[in-house]
Amino acid sequence: MNNTDSPLMKWFDTRFKINALIEYMSNKSVPTHSHSSFYYLGGISLFLFIIQVVTGILLLMYYRPGADSAYESVQFIISNVSFGWLIRAIHSWSANLMIFFVFLHMFTVYFTKAYRKPRELTWITGMGLFVLALSFGFSGYLLPWNELAYFATRVGTGMAGAIPLIGDDIMTIMRGGEEVTGATIGRFFGLHVAILPGLFTLLLSLHLIFVQRQGMSEPVAWSAKPEHKKKYMKFFPSFILRDLLVWMVVLNVIAILAVFFPDGIGVVHWPLGEKADLFSPPPAVIRPEWYFMFAFQALKMLPAHVWFMEGELFGILLFTIGGVIWMIVPFIDKDAGQNKRSKAFTYFGCFVLAFILFMTVYGYLVE
Amino acid sequence: MKNKIIISILIQIIIASAVYSSESNCLNCHSDFEDENGASQMITKDIHWQKGLGCEGCHGGDPELDDMDEVREVKGYQGIPDTKDIPAFCASCHADATYMHEHNPSLPTDQLDKYKTSVHGIQLLKEGDTKVANCISCHTVHQINSAELPHSSTHPQNIPGTCGKCHDDADYMKEYGIDTNILSDYTVSVHGYALLEKGDLGAPACNDCHGNHGAAPPGVSSLAAVCGTCHAIEAELFNDSPHKQAFEENDIPMCETCHSNHKILHPKDEWIGSKEPSLCIECHSLDDGTIGLETADAIAATLEKLIHAHSEAETTLSEAKEKGMMTTEEEFLLKEVEQSLIQTRTRLHSFNKDSVEPKAVVGIEKANLVRTNSAALIDEFYFRRIGLGIATLFITLLCIGLYLKIRNSEKEKS
Predict the structure, then answer these.
(1) Which domains does chain A have, with CATH numbers?
(2) Chain A nearest-CA residue for B382
């Protein structure tokens, strides 16, 4: 008996026209070429986001925001709640891996010019998701209210203060006052568990709808091939099954990492450590999360003044301009829009990638 | 107006040169014939000089005169005082409460009174023995400094060396019949180690037990009071113990009998009991008609139980820590066990097993709790590994199943 003939499917089909959806998905196909593996990166990021949501909800049951309770509740989760340590470890590992895969997804999309017409809005929503993913990381870092998180957040929010005219106001809004205090935890907590997930879900839905409606992008060189030389695989079930296989592998990797390294390892490290003390001197090394290291190091290396403006402000301005160019690249890369190679944008992408890699590595070396 | 300014400047120059000459006349001559260890070379590092007290402040005379013979004829000139007059010489200021209040209100003014009661003072002032220490023996002559300064001869870390200048010199001390191993004994003692090696300025130097200006060896009766200044609980327990009366009746020094005086070593748990190297057996025997050794054995057994429990708890905890388990609570609890161990060792000074046991029991119970919790954490560690193994196996099987499904569907397609 075919699956669609089963009583259950019939029951659903009479109500939701589910067979039409299956029919639609069965007719979808995914290009098969040397870079097909890039198509799984978005799916991996999505899977890691789902893990984030599930483990985040579990952590939420015990986490208590506030200067007097945040640290203690995380300590309680780790030491007293059954499998609390595992949930926190999976949450932290999947957060870091999600940002890693989002980076990877973004650069593969960029270098294969998948942003080109007609996928401009897919790229824009993807960029929005990238910014939200980084915001998730930044807001979540403070929540354990430990020493390192406190000082890193003080530095991070302090950078916003460098923006002319509105900088101080932005900093005050972020911190919930002049300084990083218990009020800041409340703000970051609200951001982390309500505002960001809401926005993320909205953008993610749009992103997925765009991807489903437009299908997978074909590389410029591949799309120029004659039709008989192009190979495809069915989206359902071939691609979905492969996607599922990759997700299972990722899940296995996370499980191993979480059990063997519950506090992370190397530069990807989140030990609870000491509780934040507003009156204690800052630790010798204040370091941001690894994905902010390139920006942190670049701002650190800038001189106190560049031309007529402060070095830090100059850096923020440069990053903002760079980010805007990166976001509107589908609209300015006209060649790619016409299925032509656009070398200038490839070089620009190489420069950005090299800059991020160099600054990150250099940032850790100079420590 | 212009003339007034010029006159004013000239007057200031004249005053300044007069002051300069008045300050420097003593040094001008003395520096000509004194080497680098001479008074004129060292005096500038002296606290009195730095506070504005010139040579004439102690020695009299007139620093404005440039002829030495004329200086000696000035009324009040004292030159170098005789050794036996030095205490009074310094006390002319230091025993004057009004004068000292103006210059250093925090400094006591009873040094001379205390010195008169000290062994040094009695020997010098009554016996005329000029070999004993007077003010300058410890404080130096012209390089006197606050005891708070590290290079001062009276800084806590320099005091053993300062006293040792005489007390460690066997030839010098020969006629007094005093042990001259004091400094070497002190250096290897817990107090000496703490002060000289670890730099703990709270650790006692010679003066903390013997007094400084009123330095005297503590008598048998006052020894417990001296040690009890810091070791208050031990002294209180000892005073309530049966040993108190026995020691007094037999004229035995209290703390010193077991701990020695200057060579106070870190106490060992084996010092209590009825077998070597116990200290109890130096006075007690099985047939001495007391329950001394019986009590000592009971206390030693209780202590041993606590030490054993602590050691086991520590080992199990460190194993749990090595495995990466969260052991904050257990570590905190182990600190409480260590506290119980300290308290139990302290209560040994009651020489009463009923006083020692309750503290030890509390420690043993906590140590057992640490061990049990740590063992549970180690079990949890293995449970995690097994859980991971099962989860990994399950996911891997799922992966293999998916892979086979994909392969089959592709075979069917082709």
Answers:
(1) 1-32 (no CATH), 34-285 (1.20.810.10)
(2) A259
